Amino acid sequence: MSIPDYMQCAEDHQTVLVVVQPVGIVPEDQFFKIYKRIASVSQVSIRDSQRLLYIRYRHHYLPENNEWGDFQTHRKVVGLVSITTCDSAKDWPQTSERFHGQKEVYSSTLYDSRLMVFGLQGEIAEQQRTDVAFYPSFEESPDVERRVEDFVESIFIVLESKRLDRATDKSGDKTPLLCVPFEKKDFVGLDTDSRHYKKRCQGRMRKHVGDLCLQAGMLQDALVHYHMAVELLRGVNDFLWLGAALEGLCSASVIFHYPGGTGKLAGRKPSVSQAADTGKRHRPGAQEVLIDPGALTANGISADTSTEIGRAKNCLSPEDIIEKYKEAISYYGKYKNAGVIELEACVKAVRVLAIQKRAREASEFLQNAVYINLGQLSEEEKIQRYSILSELYELIGFHRKSAFFKRVAAMQCVAPTIPEPGWRACYKLLLETLPGYSLSLDPKDFSKGPHRGWAAVQVRLLHELVYASRRMGNPALSVRHLSFLLQTMLDFLSDQEKKEVTQSLENYTSKCPGGMEVITLPDGMKLPPVPFTKLPIVRSVKLLNLPITLRPHKVKGLLGQNMSTASPFIYSPIIMHNRSDERCKKIDFQWVQGDVCEVQLMVYNPMPYELRVENMGLLTSGVEFESLPAALSLPAESGLYPVTLVGVPRTAGNITINGYHTSVFGVTSECLLETLPTVKTSGCLVEVIPSLPRLQLSTSLPRSTHTVQSMSKEELCSSVSVQLFNGEKQQMTITLENIGSEEIQTLELTSKIVSTKEKVFGEFLSWDLEDALSHLPLKPGQAVTLTVGIKVKLDFSGQESLLQDLNEDGISVTGLPISSPLRQVLKARSESKSVSSESGKTEYSHVKTLEAVLNFKYSGGVGKVEGYYKELSLGVHVDVEPSVFFTRVSTLPATSTRQCHLLLDIFNPTEHELTVSAKNNQELVLHASECQRMAIQVDKFDFESLPQPDHETVHFSNPKQLEEERLHAQGGQINSKLGICCAYSAVLLNQIHPSLERDGEASVEGVLNQLVLEHLQLAPLQWDVLVNGKPCDCDIIADCNVGVAVTLEVKLTNRSKNPVGPLALTVMPYQDFQNGVQNYDLEDAVTFIGSNTFNIDTVKPRESSVCEGALLFLYTGDFYLNIKFQDDSAGRALPLAWFTLPSVHLRALEAPLQAGA
Amino acid sequence: MFGDSIRKCLAGLQGTQTWRVGIAVIAKENYPLYIRSVASQSELKFHYTVHTSLDVVEEKISAVGKSLGDQRELYLGLLYPTEDYKVYGYVTNSKVKFVIVVDSSNTSLRDNEIRSMFRKLHNSFTDVMCNPFHNPGDPIQSKAFDGIVSGMMVQTG
C-alpha cells in the first residue's frame, strides 16, 4: 500500500467501498455519466432496520490497497459494478468472460457484484441473471439507481451476516489472526497456542468487528467493540492494530459528534468554500443514525437511559478524539510500512481539528504529515501531496503555509527531473498561491494606500509567474505579469533588478507588445491591464490656457445673459456647494475648437536610468479630440520635469481630460486620473467654444525684445520698437493675415498708452481703419494692411535743473538779463542742490520711453455667433530722444493788440546740428548744445470760444469730486485746446540733421505758463478804432487832410460773459518826438468836433456799442491818439489788459491841393 | 525524507547555505519592517520561513484575544519547530510582531534567553518609534536598532 488517499476523512470508516469500472470499450464520457448516477446512491436506508448504509464509490482502486481490507474494513472492496457495452448477442459471452475476470481481481473481498450491459438489443441468449442488467442504450436506462440500491441492499445482507458471524464467534476456540500484508511473514512459525497470540487474535478480531458494526450502521456497538479491542491490544503491545482500534474509536466518535461530516471534499477539485460548507451541512441520513429509536427519541428524552449513559461513556469527547488520534499516529509511526495509514490518519485528524477550529494543533499534525516518509514517490505523487498539504493548511486558515506548499507543488511540476515539465500546471498552481501572499493581479489594489503584503516573497512569486507563463508559450501573459511586477513592486526592486526586469520586459514586448486589454485565462480568471502609472510618475496635471493671442473673450452683454440663466435669484445666501470631485470642477477659461490646446504634466522618472516614453498623449471625453502624441526621454532619477501634451479639439462642447496614455518598454498603458490619487490637478473639465479665426500680425518695424511695462511678455503677441526724436513722426505698416480656417468678419482696433510718467501731447498712435474694414470679411489666407502713424510729442520744456546746467556750463541764455532776479534765484538754488545737478544732467540727455499697446479685436465663424472674439496685442515701444528744449518762454507785445511776439529760448541737446523753423519761415540753425532765442509773431487767441466741459462726466461723480473734476477737466481742456491752438499757430521746427535728414514737429504746449498764456489771450473786450471808416491799428498810419474833419469811431465788442460798462473814454491826441518826449499840448493844433469824451453805455455780452466823434487837424504833422478811460468806476473790476486800445497813428497832410508840395 | 525534498526544493531556489539566526520585525499589516539574517544568501528562504510563521502568530493572537483581553502575554513562545530551526514569536500590544528564528542545533538558548531577547528588541523598537522623524509603518533604518540586533546575532549565532 503505497498510494495514500488524501481525500479520506473520519466518516469514511463507516462506508463500504464499491468499485465501478468499465469492461471492454466504454466511451469515457458515457461511463462517467453512469458513474455519476451510480454514485448518487451514496446512502441507502435498509428496509427492516432503521439503519443506513453509506457507500463510497471508486472507479479506480489498487488491488494492493485492497489487501489492507482486513486492517480497516472500509478499505475493502466489497462491491463491484462493471459497465460494458455489447452490440450483439454474439459478443455477450466474451463480455461476460471479461466481467468474471474483473471480479477475480477483488474476489477475496467481494461481497457481491453487478454487470450493466448497454447497447444490447433484442434477445438475450442467456437466462435472466440477478447480477446482470441489460439496457438498450446509455440514455434508456431508467432504473440504474434502483438496481444500485438493490445491489447495496444485497451487500448489506452479506455485511450484516458477516458482522453477526464474527460478533457471535467469541466462544470459538480458534480465532483467526487478521493481519496486514507486510505482517504475514512475521507470524510464520509463531506459537499459535500462546495466550499472547490468542489475545492478539481476539483483539484484532474485536477491532474488525467494530469496523463491521460501524459500517453496518451500529455506532454504539462499534464503540463498545473498539474499546474492548483497545484494551486487548494494549495488553499485547500490538501497536499497529492498537493504533487502528484507536483510530476506529476516534472515527466512531467523530461520526457521533459531527454528523455533518469533517470535510468530505466533493469531486476531484476540492475548493475552500466546499470544505467550509461541509462543516455546517447536516446530513439528514446521519441524523437518523444518531437518533437510534432504541436509544434516543426525537424530543431528547431517552427511552432507555442505560444505553444513553453507555453511549456517553463509550464515546470520546472532542478533546479525547485528538488525544487518541495522536496516540494512534504515534503507534502507526512505529511501522515504516504503515506510512500511508499514518498519513491518512493525520489528514483525518486535521479535518477533525479544522471542524473544531483548533488550527494550531492541526498544524502540528500537518507538520508531522510533512515528515512521513512513503518511500520513493513519483513526481506526480509529490505534486499531489504538496497540493493536499496546501489545501489542508487552507482549511485550517493558514493561508501563508498553504500558499507556500502550493508554490512548492508548482515548482515540483517543473522539477528538472521531469522530462516534460508541466508549465501550465505550474502556472495554474502559482496563480492559486496569490491570495496566500496577499497579492492580487489587479494594480488598482496597489494604487491606494501603502503597499500590502510581503514584498520580497511577492516579487519572487511574480518572477516565477513570469517565467512560467513564458515557458507556457504565452508571451502576452508574461508581459502582463512583468508589467505588474514593475508597476507594483517598483519601490522594492534594487537598481540592478529594475534594470533586469525592464530589459526582459523589452525583450518580451519586442515579440508581443503589451496592451490595455483584459487577459482572460482558460479557467476564467481575468488579468486586468496594468497601466504604468509609475513610469513615469505624474505629479500634477494642469490644463493650460491658450496663449493670450488665441484666447477667446466673451462679449460682455452675452455673458450677463448666461449668468442670469444659472439661477432665478440675483443673490442667494445658500451657496450651491459643489460636492462633486475637485477634478470635475470646470476651469474658468475656454479652449477653442481647431486651436492647439495644451496640458502640462509634471513628470518624474523613478528609474535609475533614462526612461523613454513614447506616444504619450491625452485621453479625453466629451469632445472629439485629436491628440498629438509626444515622445520624451527622461533622464535618470529626474526631478519634476514638465511635459506638455497637445491636442486639437475638433468639436465644441465640454471636454474632460480623463488621463493620458503612454508607451513604455513596448507596453502601452492608459492611466486614468481618477485612479491616481497622488496626482494634483486643478480641474480637468474645460469648455471648448466653436472655432474662431486666427490672425497673424507682422509689422514693418523691427521686433523688439522690450516688454511693455506692466504687461508680461506672454500677454503680447509681439512688440515693435523704434527710436525717434521728440516730435518726430513715423509710419508703421501692420499686415494682418488670416491664418485660421474661419473668415474674419469683424475687426476692431484700440490703443492704450501704458501709464508713463511722461506727459504725452497729441495723439501718439493714429490710424485709419476704414480701408482695412473694407476688406472684410477676410478669407483664410488673405491679408490686409493697416498704416499706423506714430507721433511722439513729449514735453519740450527745459527742466529747471537743465537751466542750471546751462548756466554753469557758461552758455548764455539770451533774453535773460544777467542781473534778473530769476537768475539770481536760480543761481542760489543750484548751489544748494549741487549734488542733484549730476542727476539732472543725466536726465536731460536721458532717452525717454513711450509705450503703447495696440489691441486688435476680431471675430468670425461660429464663435462669433456664440459671442466670442479674440484679441491680438501689439506692443509699441518708442525710445524718445530729446530733440529741442524750450528753456524759456516769454512774450512781447506786438504793435497790434491782436498779436504778440512769442520768444522761445531753444536749446539743442543733441549732438547734431539742427535747423529750427517756425511757420513764417524763420530759420534758425542750432549747433550741438547751443541755445538761441527765437521770436515768433503770433496772433492772440480767443479762449472764450472753448466749448463747455462734457456734461456726461459731471454726472457720474460725487459732489466733492465734482469740483476737482471740473477744474481738472477745464484745465485739461484748455491745455489741449491750447495745444491745438499752438499747433495751429505752428511753432514748426524742422529738425534737419545733416546726416540723418529727419524732421519733426515740436510743440510749446507744455512750456507755456499762466503768465504767457494771459499774454497770448485775446482780451474779452475788443476795441476797434476806425478813422474815416478805416480800421486803424498798430502800424497802419491813417492819412487825413488838414482842415477836414476826420471821423473817429470807437467800437466795443463785448465777448465776456458779463455786461460791461458804462464806460467813458477820453481821446488824447499827442505828438511823439521820438526822443521820449510826448507833447500833449496840442490844443491849437488839433480840435475836436464835439466832445473828446465818449460815453459808452452798458454793453451786454455778445453785443457791441459804437460811439463816434470827429477830429479836425489844423496843422500837418504826425499825431497820435491816446484813448484813455476817464471814468473807471466799472472798469476797475476788470483787468487792465482788457482795456488796451490800439494807439492810433494819424498823419495830417496838406489839403489835396498842396499835396504835391 | 519528505521534509528533505522541501528543503531541497527551497535550496534549489535559494542556494545551499542556511542561516543560523534571524530576526524579523513585522508590521501590524503583516509586511516586514525589518529583516535580518546571518547568511544573506538564503535570505529569501528566511523570508519564506517568517512569512509562513505569521499564520501561527495570527492564530495565537486570535486565540489569546478571546480569552484574556488586555492582560495578554506578549511572548508567544515557540511558534513551530522544524527539523533544523525553531521559530519564536512575540507580539506587541500594537500588533507589531517580532520573530526570532534560531538553529535547532543551538541548544544553549533557553526559553528565558529568548524572552529577554524579545524584551530587548521591544525596548529598542520603542525607541525607534519614539523618534519623531520616524514614520510608523516605514521600514526601520535606525542604526541603534541595527546595533542591538547585531549584538544579539553575535551572541546567539
TrEMBL record, chain A:
InterPro entries: Ig_TRAPPC9_Trs120_1st, Ig_TRAPPC9_Trs120_4th, TPR_TRAPPC9_Trs120, Trs120_TRAPPC9, Trs120_TRAPPC9_N
Any Gene Ontology CC annotation: trans-Golgi network
Keyword tags: Golgi apparatus
PANTHER family to which the protein is assigned, alphabetical: TRAFFICKING PROTEIN PARTICLE COMPLEX SUBUNIT 9 (PTHR21512:SF5)
Pfam families (UniProt xref): Ig_TRAPPC9-Trs120_1st (PF26254), Ig_TRAPPC9-Trs120_4th (PF26283), TPR_TRAPPC9-Trs120 (PF26251), TRAPPC9-Trs120 (PF08626)
Residue ranges occupied by any Trs120/TRAPPC9 first Ig-like domain in the UniProt entry: 538-666
Family, per entry: Belongs to the NIBP family.
Top-level taxon: Eukaryota
Compartment list: Golgi apparatus
Residue span, Trs120/TRAPPC9 TPR region domain: 363-507
Transferase listed as a keyword: no
Organism: Gouania willdenowi
Domain Trs120/TRAPPC9 fourth Ig-like: residue ranges: 1040-1126
Domain Trs120/TRAPPC9 N-terminal intervals: 185-260
Protein name: Trafficking protein particle complex 9
